[in-house]
Amino acid sequence: MVKGFSHYWTKKEVRQQLSVIRGEISPTKVIVNAKWLNSIRKCWMEGNIWIHHDRIVYVGKELPHKKNGTEVIDATDNFVVPGYIEHHAHPFQLYHPLTLAQYASERGTTTLINDNMVFFLLLNKKKALTLLDCLQKTPATMLWWARYDVQTELANEHDVFAYSNIKAWLDHPYVVQGGELTDWPKVLQGDDSILHWMLETKDVRKPIEGHFPGAGEKTLTQMALLGVDGDHESMSGEDILRRIDVGMTASVRYSSIRPDLPKIMRELHEKKFSNYDRLLMTTDGSPPSFLENGMMDHLIELAVEQGVPFIEAVNMCTYNVARHYHMDDCIGMIAPGRLANINILSSLSTPLPKDVLAKGHWVRKNGISCFPVQKFPWDKYGFEPLKLDWHLTEKDFHFSIPLGLELVNEVIIKPYRIKMDLTLEELPAERDESFFMLIDRYGKWVVSTAIKGFGKNIHGLASSFNNTGDIILIGKSKRGLLSAFEQLKKQQGGIALVDNNGEVVSSIPLPLGGIMSELSMDEIGEQEKQLKDALKQRGYLYHDPVYSLLFFNATHLPYIRVTQMGIFDVKKKKVLFPSIMR
Fold it and tell me: Per the database record, which ranges form the Amidohydrolase-related domain (predicted)?
């Protein structure tokens, strides 16, 4: 039997916890005069909360017999709720997982259930799973998914998705779900490899998360038969109801490209919806600038503004989540045996806590953030500055593919027939077209075409930030592409925008493998805002260029993508124009 996350404490630790209840030893902390949320009964109760190190050991009217060295916290006139849970985090959106964990924890979101894609793709199995153990040593509770598909076309896909790799992830106690399942059409069309992993996931009592934008009743019914337990892609109140009606848990999303939560809750309330037990909430991997108002604390606030009762809004990112993941014996409520992830609120109108305990450690106290700062050894796990020890030459700037990319919003790309003369050194300023290149991060292959809709006056942009860490170049000028690439080499990964003189207009260095920054959320957010402003000045029409860059090779979105294999037709599952070896 695979151990789940609830197998957290050793026999010795459990014996010590029992000794606290018997009055033989003192608890490490006691919260007195607490008005605490009973998540199951959905009411406020009054009493005291005993904590021993990282676990709640008692909740009730009694005080401990021994309090030698016990820290006593008076919660008079305050409200105590469980630490919030973000169940659908993508912790690699310029920031790295611990940067997000610190920022989230200091605002009351003490548990993150994270996408594993970057670790899965870039690290070998032993190194990746050792990293999960190391990340868990911080006050934040860091849990993970196990991907079945990678949302792009890889040159070495069969090696990546070997049996031993997937099995090891599914069996890990900090991995608590399968998915998200983006390549569900492949399963419906008869592919048994993903179906096998789905059944394995159910065997170890872990839920499966879907990815079903725009799915109708028939598709959702088939997904339920395949064992999918939840989905976060609802874009309307009707979408939420369809998922609930087939027995799924539905997530209400408020993200940078889908800020749907207020609209969805209004539509649900118009339909007299009042049972929130199968609803969760998520920020769905938003970039730093979007999160400046907070994490789940902000979503609770938005939900309450739309008429969701406060306790229900809290449950949507605490108890409901824990129950969905079969972890309510360990997290998600104020009760004996649960992790001491606790938020103390000054009032019910302010979901941002004044005090936060994460695994029994203070990470916010008296309104001041105090998450312990530590230098994490990312280089030990292979996340070092990107060394691009190869060169672009004139022959690389050969554009002969007749099919171009048209960006019609942040993330949707349609094909178009190129009529421009791409032998030109620089494309006409009045045309909404630029050169586009995707190049292997090791310089082995290249895909060269044109793009519409990304900007009218971008001299040169280079980025190593995308799902696979390969190199994207965009610009009106071939000289600009080269200049941006040289800047990317100089800063050893990230995003670089240059002007006509080769000067850097905006830069986001990402020294951890070319995909993650070591700066704080506030600092990365400022860099992101500068990049967005600079791109908008140069004709970028949409709100979120970070997601545009991330998803150029993401085959879970229509209609065409640029992948390691070449330009790919998502619907037909076919490479239209292959990548060219250099």
Answer: 79-361
105-138 exposure pattern, b = at least 16 Cβ within 10 A, e = fewer: bbbbbbbbbbbbbbbbbbbebeebbebbeebbeb
Q: What is the pLDDT of residue 2?
A: 60
Phi, psi dihedrals of residue 188, rounded to the nearest 5°:
-65, -30
Strand pairing partners for 283?
none
Contacts of residue 219, Cβ cutoff 8 Å, sequence gap at least 6: 212
User: In the Cβ-directed half-sphere of 34, how many Cα atoms lie within 13 Å?
Assistant: 27
Distances (CA, A) of 460 to 451, 455, 539: 13, 11, 13
* Distance (Å, whole) CA 185 – CA 194: 11
Would you place residue 373 in the very low, low, confident or very high pLDDT band (cuts 50, 70, 90)?
confident
Q: How far apart are CA 556 and CA 147, in angstroms?
A: 13
Closest CA to 98 of 132, 123, 127: 132
Q: Give per-residue pLDDT as tens, 287-311.
A: 999 999 999 999 999 999 999 999 9
Work out the burial of residue 6: count CB atoms within 10 Å of its CB; fewer than 13 is exposed, 13-18 middle, 19 or more buried.
Answer: middle
Q: For tokens 């990304």, what's the residue?
A: 454
Q: How far apart are CA 279 and CA 284, in angstroms?
A: 15
Collapsing DSSP to helix, strand or coil, 391 comes out as coil
Residues 33 and 76 sit within 8 Å (Cβ to Cβ): yes
Cα torsion 331, 334, 339, 344: sign? positive
SS3 content of the chain, % helix, strand, coil (to 5): 30, 25, 45
- Give the Å distances, CA to CA, from 474 to 170, 404, 478, 480, 566: 38, 13, 9, 9, 17
Cβ-contact 300, 314 below 8 angstroms = yes
Tokens 């032993």 correspond to 126
Structure tokens at 105: 């924890």
Q: Which two tokens stand for residue 246?
A: 């087939």
Distances (CA, A) of 218 to 188, 212, 242, 279, 349: 12, 12, 10, 21, 41
Question: Pseudo-torsion of CA 300, 304, 308, 313, nearest 10°?
Answer: 20
Residue with token string 């965009």: 474
The CA distance from 405 to 413, in Å, is 6
- 168: Cβ contacts below 8 Å, ≥ 6 apart: 125, 129
CB 467 within 8 A of CB 489: no
Do the Cβ atoms of 110 and 338 come closer than 8 Å? no
pLDDT in tens, 374-429: 889 999 999 999 999 999 988 899 999 999 999 999 999 999 999 999 999 999 99
Tokens at residue 439, please? 């190049």
Sign for the pseudo-dihedral over CA of 386, 389, 392, 396? negative
Q: Both ends of the chain: CA-CA distance in Å?
A: 49
Among the listed residues 532, 534, 527, the one whose alpha carbon sits nearest the alpha carbon of residue 548: 532
The token pair at 116 is 């594993």
